[in-house]
Amino acid sequence: MRPLLLLLLTLPAFAGGLEQLKGFLSQTQAFTASFQQTVSQKSGKQQQASGIMAIQRPGRFDWNYVKPYEQRVVGDGKQLWIYDPDLNQVTRKRLDQALGDSPAALLAGSNDLEKSYKLTDMGSRDGLEWIEATPKNRDSGFEKVRMGFKDAQPMAMELADSFGQTTLIRFSNISRNPKLDANRFNFVPPKGADVVAAD
Predict the structure, then answer these.
(1) Cβ(102)–Cβ(80) below 8 Å
(2) What strands, in cross-sheet order, belong to the sheet with 128-135?
(3) Contact (Cβ atoms closer than 8 angstroms) between residue 90 and residue 108
(4) b/e sequence 48-73, b meaning 16+ C-beta within 10 Å
(5) How far apart are CA 189 and CA 199, in angstroms?
(6) In degrees rounded to 5, what are phi and psi of residue 22?
(7) CA–CA dist 57, 29 (Å, integer)
(8) Which residue of 11, 108, 116, 117 could cross-link 61, Cys pair, CB 3.0 to 4.6 Å?
(9) How much of the chain, in percent, has pLDDT values that exceed 70?
(10) Phi, then psi, of 160 in degrees rounded to 5
Protein backbone atom coordinates (compact mmCIF):
# COMPACT_ATOMS: atom_id res chain seq x y z
CA MET A 1 0.00 0.00 0.00
CA ARG A 2 1.35 3.40 -0.90
CA PRO A 3 2.39 5.57 2.10
CA LEU A 4 0.09 8.47 1.18
CA LEU A 5 -2.91 6.16 0.83
CA LEU A 6 -2.03 4.57 4.15
CA LEU A 7 -1.84 8.02 5.74
CA LEU A 8 -5.23 8.99 4.30
CA LEU A 9 -6.76 5.85 5.76
CA THR A 10 -5.44 6.73 9.21
CA LEU A 11 -7.00 10.23 9.16
CA PRO A 12 -10.65 10.95 9.93
CA ALA A 13 -12.71 11.32 6.74
CA PHE A 14 -13.23 15.03 7.36
CA ALA A 15 -10.11 15.81 9.38
CA GLY A 16 -9.83 19.47 10.35
CA GLY A 17 -6.75 21.59 9.89
CA LEU A 18 -5.20 20.77 13.27
CA GLU A 19 -5.54 17.02 12.70
CA GLN A 20 -4.01 17.37 9.25
CA LEU A 21 -1.14 19.47 10.65
CA LYS A 22 -0.44 16.75 13.24
CA GLY A 23 -0.57 14.14 10.49
CA PHE A 24 1.92 16.10 8.43
CA LEU A 25 4.31 16.62 11.36
CA SER A 26 4.19 12.99 12.52
CA GLN A 27 4.52 11.37 9.08
CA THR A 28 6.80 13.75 7.17
CA GLN A 29 10.58 13.79 7.45
CA ALA A 30 11.26 15.45 4.08
CA PHE A 31 9.20 17.57 1.72
CA THR A 32 9.85 19.27 -1.61
CA ALA A 33 7.62 21.55 -3.69
CA SER A 34 7.43 24.41 -6.13
CA PHE A 35 5.94 27.63 -4.78
CA GLN A 36 4.25 30.80 -5.98
CA GLN A 37 4.49 33.76 -3.59
CA THR A 38 2.49 36.99 -3.55
CA VAL A 39 3.36 39.78 -1.11
CA SER A 40 0.58 42.36 -0.65
CA GLN A 41 1.44 45.68 0.98
CA LYS A 42 -0.91 48.02 2.84
CA SER A 43 -0.91 50.33 -0.19
CA GLY A 44 -2.33 47.54 -2.34
CA LYS A 45 0.93 47.03 -4.24
CA GLN A 46 1.79 43.40 -4.92
CA GLN A 47 5.04 41.58 -5.62
CA GLN A 48 5.19 38.13 -7.21
CA ALA A 49 7.94 35.54 -6.83
CA SER A 50 8.35 31.84 -7.48
CA GLY A 51 10.83 29.06 -6.89
CA ILE A 52 11.45 25.65 -5.37
CA MET A 53 11.89 24.53 -1.77
CA ALA A 54 12.92 21.51 0.27
CA ILE A 55 12.79 20.71 3.96
CA GLN A 56 14.43 18.00 6.03
CA ARG A 57 12.88 17.90 9.46
CA PRO A 58 13.80 18.93 12.03
CA GLY A 59 15.32 22.31 11.32
CA ARG A 60 16.79 22.05 7.83
CA PHE A 61 15.42 23.75 4.73
CA ASP A 62 16.47 25.17 1.37
CA TRP A 63 14.20 27.88 -0.06
CA ASN A 64 15.20 29.01 -3.57
CA TYR A 65 13.66 32.05 -5.25
CA VAL A 66 14.08 31.80 -9.02
CA LYS A 67 11.84 34.59 -10.42
CA PRO A 68 11.86 37.57 -10.69
CA TYR A 69 15.20 37.56 -8.86
CA GLU A 70 17.44 34.88 -7.40
CA GLN A 71 17.78 34.47 -3.67
CA ARG A 72 18.51 31.44 -1.52
CA VAL A 73 17.46 30.95 2.11
CA VAL A 74 19.03 27.96 3.88
CA GLY A 75 18.51 26.65 7.39
CA ASP A 76 21.22 24.17 8.41
CA GLY A 77 19.72 23.33 11.81
CA LYS A 78 21.62 26.05 13.68
CA GLN A 79 22.07 29.01 11.35
CA LEU A 80 19.87 30.76 8.81
CA TRP A 81 21.71 31.88 5.67
CA ILE A 82 20.27 34.35 3.15
CA TYR A 83 22.26 34.64 -0.08
CA ASP A 84 21.62 37.41 -2.59
CA PRO A 85 23.65 36.66 -5.78
CA ASP A 86 23.02 40.12 -7.30
CA LEU A 87 24.64 41.82 -4.31
CA ASN A 88 27.02 38.92 -3.66
CA GLN A 89 25.99 39.25 -0.03
CA VAL A 90 25.24 36.64 2.63
CA THR A 91 23.31 37.38 5.82
CA ARG A 92 23.71 34.94 8.71
CA LYS A 93 21.33 34.68 11.67
CA ARG A 94 20.74 32.22 14.48
CA LEU A 95 17.95 29.95 13.30
CA ASP A 96 16.02 30.08 16.57
CA GLN A 97 15.87 33.88 16.30
CA ALA A 98 14.81 33.96 12.66
CA LEU A 99 11.64 31.88 12.38
CA GLY A 100 9.71 34.87 11.08
CA ASP A 101 12.14 35.32 8.19
CA SER A 102 11.21 32.14 6.36
CA PRO A 103 7.93 30.24 6.15
CA ALA A 104 9.97 27.07 5.60
CA ALA A 105 11.23 27.34 9.18
CA LEU A 106 7.71 26.73 10.47
CA LEU A 107 7.24 23.61 8.32
CA ALA A 108 10.71 22.34 9.18
CA GLY A 109 10.36 22.86 12.94
CA SER A 110 9.86 20.33 15.69
CA ASN A 111 6.64 18.41 16.27
CA ASP A 112 5.91 20.46 19.39
CA LEU A 113 4.65 23.62 17.69
CA GLU A 114 2.33 24.38 20.59
CA LYS A 115 5.33 25.36 22.72
CA SER A 116 5.96 28.34 20.42
CA TYR A 117 2.55 28.98 18.83
CA LYS A 118 -1.08 29.17 19.79
CA LEU A 119 -2.82 26.91 17.24
CA THR A 120 -6.45 27.43 16.19
CA ASP A 121 -8.64 25.50 13.74
CA MET A 122 -10.02 27.94 11.15
CA GLY A 123 -12.36 25.64 9.19
CA SER A 124 -12.66 25.13 5.43
CA ARG A 125 -11.91 27.66 2.69
CA ASP A 126 -11.04 27.24 -1.00
CA GLY A 127 -11.15 23.47 -0.67
CA LEU A 128 -8.54 23.45 2.11
CA GLU A 129 -8.66 22.95 5.89
CA TRP A 130 -7.00 25.91 7.61
CA ILE A 131 -5.23 26.47 10.91
CA GLU A 132 -3.89 29.69 12.39
CA ALA A 133 -0.60 29.79 14.30
CA THR A 134 -0.01 32.85 16.49
CA PRO A 135 3.56 33.10 17.85
CA LYS A 136 3.83 33.35 21.62
CA ASN A 137 7.06 35.32 21.16
CA ARG A 138 5.98 38.72 19.85
CA ASP A 139 9.47 39.36 18.44
CA SER A 140 9.11 36.58 15.87
CA GLY A 141 8.70 38.95 12.90
CA PHE A 142 5.12 38.06 12.06
CA GLU A 143 1.74 38.49 13.75
CA LYS A 144 0.19 35.21 12.61
CA VAL A 145 0.44 32.55 9.94
CA ARG A 146 -2.35 30.47 8.45
CA MET A 147 -1.73 27.13 6.78
CA GLY A 148 -4.15 25.37 4.45
CA PHE A 149 -4.02 21.56 4.24
CA LYS A 150 -5.39 18.90 1.95
CA ASP A 151 -4.73 15.18 2.49
CA ALA A 152 -2.44 16.14 5.42
CA GLN A 153 -0.18 18.15 3.11
CA PRO A 154 0.41 21.92 3.32
CA MET A 155 -0.98 23.48 0.14
CA ALA A 156 -0.94 27.17 1.10
CA MET A 157 0.41 29.57 3.73
CA GLU A 158 -0.65 33.12 4.58
CA LEU A 159 1.69 35.22 6.73
CA ALA A 160 0.76 38.57 8.23
CA ASP A 161 3.88 40.41 9.41
CA SER A 162 4.34 43.26 11.85
CA PHE A 163 4.69 45.77 8.97
CA GLY A 164 1.15 45.23 7.68
CA GLN A 165 2.23 43.03 4.75
CA THR A 166 0.50 39.78 3.86
CA THR A 167 2.39 36.99 2.10
CA LEU A 168 0.45 34.23 0.33
CA ILE A 169 2.35 31.10 -0.72
CA ARG A 170 0.84 28.27 -2.74
CA PHE A 171 2.63 24.94 -3.15
CA SER A 172 2.54 22.61 -6.16
CA ASN A 173 4.52 19.61 -7.51
CA ILE A 174 4.68 18.30 -3.96
CA SER A 175 6.85 15.31 -3.11
CA ARG A 176 6.63 13.81 0.36
CA ASN A 177 9.51 12.01 2.06
CA PRO A 178 11.88 12.02 -0.96
CA LYS A 179 15.49 11.03 -0.41
CA LEU A 180 17.47 14.28 -0.10
CA ASP A 181 21.22 14.85 -0.14
CA ALA A 182 22.22 16.11 3.32
CA ASN A 183 24.78 18.44 1.70
CA ARG A 184 21.91 20.42 0.21
CA PHE A 185 21.40 22.05 3.61
CA ASN A 186 25.07 22.88 4.25
CA PHE A 187 25.58 26.42 2.99
CA VAL A 188 29.09 27.71 2.30
CA PRO A 189 29.31 31.42 1.39
CA PRO A 190 30.67 31.88 -2.15
CA LYS A 191 34.24 33.10 -2.43
CA GLY A 192 34.37 36.90 -2.25
CA ALA A 193 30.83 37.27 -0.88
CA ASP A 194 30.24 39.88 1.83
CA VAL A 195 29.04 37.99 4.95
CA VAL A 196 26.95 39.99 7.43
CA ALA A 197 26.16 38.53 10.86
CA ALA A 198 22.74 39.65 12.10
CA ASP A 199 22.71 37.81 15.44
Answers:
(1) yes
(2) 117-125, 128-135, 142-150, 153-161, 166-176, 30-40, 46-56, 60-67, 71-76, 79-84, 89-94, 194-197
(3) no
(4) ebbbebbbbbebbbbbbbeeeeebbb
(5) 17
(6) -65, -40
(7) 5
(8) 108
(9) 83
(10) -110, 115
